[in-house]
Amino acid sequence: MPRQPLHVLISGASVAGPMAAYWLCRHGFAVTVVEQMPLARVRTSGHAVDLFGPAMEVAEWAGVLPAVMDARTRTEIVSFQRGDGRGVDVEMRRLVAGISGRHVEVMRGELATILYEATRSDVQYLFEDSIHTIVEEPDGIAVTFEHAPADQFDLVIGADGLHSIVRRLVFGPEDQFRRFLGGYLAGAALPNYLGLHGRMVVWNTPGRLAAIYPVHHTTTARGGFLFRRSKELMLDYRDVDGQKQLLHQVYGGDGWQVPRLLAEMDAADDFYFDSISQIVMDSWNKGRVTLVGDAGYSPGPAVGGGTSIAMVGAYVLAQELAEAGRNYQTGLRAYEDRMREFAAKARSIGRTTMSTLIPRTGIQVWLMPELLRLLTRMPPRFQQRLFQLQATPARALDSIHLTRSTVED
């Protein structure tokens, strides 16, 4: 009589969760994914994210790269706005070519939708639900949910982001592992009232920025804010009203499109706000539980290529579990061993990226777009040599070598 496949529960249906589910199913595992948000919200949530190098390989091997390329944002120009109304335009394609030979920018919600569609026929999804308790027993893990009936699993994977429920339940409170990098990120959908097409507009002042960019194939855009704070604010990440009030305090005296952006944020029902923080853990394995992506080794929102790292981590986890068979502990240890140095390198670039994204002084605000424009006019080979000297997400990703798995049909 054939042995039953290992039953895996994954918390989180954004990127790391469905990507791990895809490969685990191909390797013969039975997979359930639980997600707090409704499917409609998953499809539209999040800002633009980047896939570099190995993450592009993972998407290609999963057969979803054509859909990802079709869904790309098609941002061609980043226009840095000056106080006199002029803009300094930087060609995105030429800039990224110096950083990575393979790259695509896509909306997080679009990517999550593509991965969901690739897995929906093989994976059991539980939307608008979450894990309530996790208890490891001799022959498995007993899990209770907020709504679904209790069940037992062989393994549990936390792919539920910076504020992971699985990490809190199994490893302890978040503040043990979260490291504040000195900034905050906010964003929401809004009408494309500027009529932007293939162009992101960015407004900088020392210590903060605001940006608007269109969402391809829609009449909407995304607005975003990034600002520095030397000390972490005592503000709960679930306190939406408090977060919106804070944005008004930080940006209330600013010009450009900021007043309109603040008004749109006030009215948005998909408002996002969080600290730019990392997750640092000695180990992201405990018994039959492991973490993947931001839940275990977040390099920081907007600064460290977290989506690419999540894609790669999900692939490596599934590959190592498949090679280990029912000896899951061996697979989990191998996954952690392969990802540890890679995750550390990705985290190390966070503070450097913050300096580029959010200039501290007026001189830096003026100088940064001029330097970027100059850089894009250099020959690609020279650009690549310069970027090789810098800490970038693409460079961190190049430090891990992936091999294509042999999977079951």
Can you give a write-up of this model?
The mean pLDDT is 90. The strands form four sheets. The protein has a seven-stranded mixed sheet, sandwiched between helices. Strands 7-2-1-11-18-17 form a six-stranded mixed sheet. It has a three-stranded antiparallel sheet with strand order 8-9-10. α3 crosses α11 (306-324). The protein has helices spanning 16-26, 39-44, 53-61, 65-70, 92-97, 108-119, 165-170, 240-251, 258-267, 294-297, 306-324, 328-348, 350-357, 362-376, 380-388, 393-397; strands spanning 7-11, 30-35, 48-52, 77-81, 87-91, 103-107, 124-127, 131-137, 140-145, 151-153, 155-158, 178-191, 199-205, 208-214, 220-228, 272-279, 285-286, 289-291. The chain has 409 residues and is an alpha/beta fold. The protein has a domain at 7-72 and 104-177 and 279-351: FAD/NAD(P)-binding domain. 45% of the residues are buried.
